[in-house]
Amino acid sequence: MKQTAALLRLCAVALAMAGIQTAKADEVVKIGHAAPLTGEVAHLGKDEENGARLAVEEFNKKGLVIGGRKITLQLDAQDDAADPRTATQVAQKLVDDHVVAVVGHLNSGCSIPASRIYNEAGVLEISPASTNPQYTQQGFKSTYRLVATDAQQGPALAEYAQKVLHAKSVAIVDDSTAYGQGLANEFEKTAKAGGVTVVSHDATNDKATDFRAILTKIKGERPDAIMYGGEDATGGPFAKQASQLGLSMRVLAGDGVCTGKLPDLAGDAAKNVICSQPGMPVDQMKGGAAFQKAYEARFHQPIELYAPFAYDSVGIIVAAMKRADSTDPSKVLAAMSGSDYNGVIGDVRFDDKGDLREPVITLYDYKGGKKSTLSVQKM
């Protein structure tokens, strides 16, 4: 009996030691996420975060082994408030948190200044939403994005204005952000090259609520169409006030305006808006139907805009970790050049700058308060 008791104690010790060793073999790996979670465009930032969180949860459920160690992913979500200065502080915090990579930022005006911090730290940054061309033109090896750029989105809108709306003249207004101004400038270049007269290009800001002075001036200029570069928080009221002033021409806008929330912000004037969005419509994405079902089951709300792109961003990071067989940020970054990922949004491959090799732009309008697909253009 004494021998049996001693043997049981030894077994218990051995099992306890095995438990300790197993615990040591497990590793928590942080993936950063940065977007506005407060402020006027928080709904877009939260949508992006939800997409990343869903991916993290699914990988943890399936189980993940890197370098012979069981990995548990953790989403380190930070609020950059759509503010460039806050974005750099958030970027430094994520670096200090030793994240393996970052999904974000949402706004180009945040991604661009934050990208320098990630680059200096050797940390991969994949933006699911930033469209300003400058983001990937800084010579950094750490910047990637999953959406078409304004150099593709702006021309798509301008060509639609010219070829489909047969606009001979346009007025342009932007919100003075890196995103809104960048999109408006790309639109203007293509419009002028196509023989369209730009009667004016005015600037407002991303906190503005009253656009009547600019719109009254535009009314006197009598353009065939108006282009607005900005987010839905200002684009919706802009379109609504234009309609209230009797301006019935189409308002062209980019992905920041092209949301499910626009009809609430613009009211009946949403019917005057034509907007572009990088990527395919969710119902035409390769894995869109399954993703939409999983997203709505988890978060009990519809997809806003960028969730599929954030979801795939996490998948691409995990794929790079697997190729590197490491969770070391520098090794994961080095493995990114070999990305060839089959995700929800389709097949993803990058050029040497970190941009998509085969981007897509979709144009939408609003009918009965709902977004409706006009056309899908492969760039």
UniProtKB/TrEMBL annotation:
Keywords: Amino-acid transport, Signal, Transport. It holds the Pfam family Peripla_BP_6. The keyword Signal applies. Residues 29-353 form the Leucine-binding protein domain. SUPFAM superfamilies: Periplasmic binding protein-like I. GO terms for biological process: amino acid transport. Coiled coil: none annotated. Residues 1-25 form the signal peptide. It comes from the Bacteria. Belongs to the leucine-binding protein family. This is L-leucine-binding protein /L-isoleucine-binding protein /L-valine-binding protein. It comes from Paraburkholderia susongensis. The lineage of its organism: Bacteria, Pseudomonadati, Pseudomonadota, Betaproteobacteria, Burkholderiales.
